[in-house]
Specification:
Strand content: under 5%
Radius of gyration: 19 Å
Length: 144
């Protein structure tokens, strides 16, 4: 008698992940974090464009732009990060390379954003660092 205990469930999960194109838990992790981080940058951008009183402007900051300029930068980068994260859910191979590049840009934008929202900028820098790590450690499609 042949037993099909736990092997049947893992085979079905593997076939399901092959159909969606993602195939790796790290890619799903990166995609979720990219969509979340991108949406948070979009919200930061909208708040800065609206010139909300949430942000404190600093004097004598080397990268001092107008708060509206920072808002547009965050809005644009946030939209690109969110779209790249959505492309990762579709299993697009190019989205991994774009994801690493855009997450790096988002880290840079949030580093320059530190005087305006220090805690939140550090949280988004950490999220983008995890995204880069997850995208770089996920197995290639040929390794699955």
């Amino acid at each position: 008698m042949t037993s099909h205990g736990s092997g049947a469930g893992s085979g079905a999960a593997a076939r399901s992940s092959e159909r969606t194109g993602i195939g790796s838990g790290w890619l799903v992790f990166a995609a979720v974090l990219m969509v979340f981080g991108g949406l948070m940058m979009i919200f930061d951008g909208i708040a800065a464009i609206a010139e909300d009183d949430v942000f404190v402007t600093t004097r004598n900051y080397a990268y001092a732009f107008d708060l509206t300029s920072w808002g547009w930068i965050h809005l644009i980068v946030g939209v690109v990060v969110t779209l790249a994260g959505a492309a990762l859910f579709q299993g697009a191979t190019w989205a991994r390379v774009v994801g690493v590049a855009v997450a790096g840009l988002a880290m840079l934008a949030n580093f320059l954003w530190l005087p305006y929202a220090p805690f939140w900028a550090i949280v988004l820098i950490a999220i983008n660092a995890f995204v880069i790590w997850a995208l770089c450690t996920a197995p290639r499609p040929s390794e699955r």
